[in-house]
Amino acid sequence: MMAKITFLLCSIMFFSKNLFAEDVASTAAQTGSAFGGLMPLLIIFIFFWLFLIRPQQKQKKELEKQINAIKKDDTVLTSGGIYARVVAVKEQDIEAEISQGVRVRISKTAIVSVKNPNEPVTPEIVKK
């Protein structure tokens, strides 16, 4: 996927020189040539905004909502890869049980995913 994106961006930059290239004498006479030189950069910025920046911001806001709505008995996944059941929620951190009788304090910033125990589990189909 990234190879395709890189190829697309390189081809836009390479071919834009040919598309917007003008004779040196006519460039001085034309006023729109400054905008033509910025067009490839504008296209690249719009591409990055639509496909990289905006989805990441949406995902971050959704995770923030989930973290603020954590309650007792939710299952969380930490950035260290540990699944834990929430026992108590505090302002900046949570107290979670990672095994029977083993409780740890976890910062809310270290939480990557929140799973509500009431949500139905949908099986994933693995293609071979």
Q: Assign an overall shape.
A: elongated
Number of E-state strands:
5
Computed Rg:
25 Å
**Beta-strand percentage range:** 15-25%
Helical coverage, percent range: 40-55%
Q: Low-confidence segments, ≥5 residues, pLDDT <50? A: none
**Main β-sheet description:** 5 strands, antiparallel
Which secondary-structure class do the elements indicate?
Answer: alpha+beta
Distance between the termini: 20 Å
Helix count from the secondary structure assignment: 3
Describe this structure as you would to a colleague:
It is elongated, with a radius of gyration of 25 Å. Helix 1 runs antiparallel to helix 3 (33-68). The model has no long low-confidence stretch (mean pLDDT 80). Helix content is 48%, strand content 23%. The longest helix is centred in the middle third of the chain and has 36 residues, at 33-68. The protein has a five-stranded antiparallel β-sheet. The protein contains three helices and five strands; from the N terminus they run αααβββββ. A hairpin with a 4-residue loop joins strand 1 and strand 2. It has helices at 2-20, 24-29, 33-68; strands at residues 75-78, 83-89, 93-99, 102-107, 111-115. It has 128 residues and is α+β, with helices and mostly antiparallel strands.
